[in-house]
Amino acid sequence: MDKNVLYLTAEILGVVSGILYVWLTARANILCWPAGLLNIASYIIVFYEAKLYADMGLQGIYIVLTVYGWVVWRHGDGNVKKRKISNVPRVELLATAVAVAIIWLCVWHILHTYTDGEVTWADSFLMAASCGATWLAARKYIANWVWWIIIDTLYTPLYLYKQLYLTAALYVLFGIIAWRGYNIWRVKSAEVYI
Predict the structure, then answer these.
(1) What per-residue confidence (pLDDT) applies to 82?
(2) Which residues contact residue 57 at a Cβ distance below 8 angstroms, ignoring those fewer than 6 apart?
(3) For the chain, which residues make up each domain, given as ranges?
(4) What CA–CA distance (Å, rounded) separates 149 from 52?
(5) Whole-number mean pLDDT of the chain?
């Protein structure tokens, strides 16, 4: 198979599975996690070809977080039989933000020093922030959607710059779905407490 055909096929599959993943997540449907795994596999190829190494590495982290999210949504996390949509405790939000900052700086240093990536600052920041947002989603915290709206907005120009036009369009759509997901989860969390 021609390398360009493989690359384009992976991007198209990534776009379709990504839309399905975010749409299902917004509805708090557990089937979002298998769709997420297909999205991950597709984007490993896409990001490698685009030399977005932090985003490529992020896919490996996503595998772990996706499996974690799937297990937690299905069976609970030890403390809670089944997690419900809720607000993130301030301490956990602060710990997540600190972890994101540390990951960002470490990944940036590695990419800047050892790769030929040309947008290492943005690539590493968005990779780290995406880890934090995925963690918040796996824990069913409403704040994950606010993070995703910001991240999707910042990813769009990066992907346009790297000429990943389908992926840039996908991230515009992700931002719209994230806004919808935020509103759906806010309503569902109010129903839990009534």
Answers:
(1) 73
(2) 107, 127
(3) 3-193
(4) 21
(5) 91
